[in-house]
Amino acid sequence: MTRKLQPGKLIAATHNKGKVVELKDLFEPLGFQVLSGLELDLDEPEETEFTFEGNALIKARTAAQATGAPALSDDSGLEVTALGGMPGVHTAIWAGEPRDFYKAMEKVERELIAIGAKDRSARFVSCLAVAWPDGHEVTFRGEVQGNLTWPPRGEMGFGYDPVFVPFGFDVTFAELEPAQKHAMSHRAVAFEKLKAALL
Ligand code: ITT
After folding, report:
1. Among residues 25, 75, 100, 170, which one is catalytic?
2. 179 found inside a domain
3. Cα–Cα distance measured from residue 77 to residue 118, given in angstroms and rounded to the nearest whole number
4. Which of 57, 76, 90, 125 for a ligand 1 pocket mutation test, highest count of atoms within 8 Å of Cβ?
């Protein structure tokens, strides 16, 4: 039988403020007390895998071991079709240190111009992982397709939201109200799968 996730303490194994907000919005209404890696000052493990699933598992596993509580992580990124799926699992580090997402979005745009790309399609991918302290673990993947726009538009959301226009819309993720983004994002799709399996 699939193991269920019991409402109670859940560690959000992330140091990304935008993700913390989104994960709390998704899980707190279901009776979870979500504590983030930021609040708990958890160490950030190195993301050494080449897949979203692999890196999500590293983060969830490390947090579950460190806290003794079930941990949830998200590994996500932007895959640009004309760039062969880049930046993909490297999406966060494209922003450099300290992170500058305007520069990262500009870098994507520069590369599209450099190759004369007509295809501006891209997708956001999110892989949610849950790990329990006893070593049990599971992952769920969600994707949302869209087109990249330039210049960036909108003040909401985080990361690459200002350049991503989901298919069927003419506004960017950063121009959508959080509730609208949460209803359709890559993270929301992964979350629906998690909910069906674990809750
Ligand atoms: P943690 O590892 O601590 O969770 P991180 O920001 O390093 O935080 P990732 O390694 O998963 O997370 O990098 C994913 C990057 O993809 C993230 O920094 C964002 O820039 C981008 N990204 C993911 N989901 C996004 C979303 O919903 N909107 C905009 N950008 C997003």
Report:
1. 75
2. yes
3. 22
4. 76
Question: DSSP characters for 122-166?
Answer: EEEEEEEEEE-TTS-EEEEEEEEEEEE-SS---SSS-TTGGGEEE
Contact indicator for 53, 141 with CB cutoff of 8 Å: yes
Q: Do 105 and 152 contact (CB within 8 A), yes or no?
A: yes
> Is 97 a member of any domain?
yes
Output the pTM of the full model: 0.96
CA-based nearest residue to 142, from 90, 62, 79: 79
**For the chain, percent of residues with pLDDT exceeding 70:** 99
Residue-wise pLDDT for 59-117, tens only, equals: 999 999 999 999 999 999 999 999 999 999 999 999 889 899 999 999 999 999 999 99
Contact (Cβ atoms closer than 8 angstroms) between residue 172 and residue 161 = yes
pLDDT tens figures, 129-176: 999 999 999 999 999 999 999 999 999 999 999 999 999 999 999 999
Say which amino acid occupies 170.
D
In a domain, 155, yes or no: yes
CA distance 81 to 48: 23
Mean pLDDT of all residues in the chain?
Answer: 96
Taking the centre of ligand 1 as the mean of its atom positions, its distance from the CA of residue 197, in whole angstroms, is 24
For residue 32, give the CATH number of its domain. 3.90.950.10
Task: Give the structural domain span for 63.
Answer: 9-198
| 75 has catalytic annotation | yes
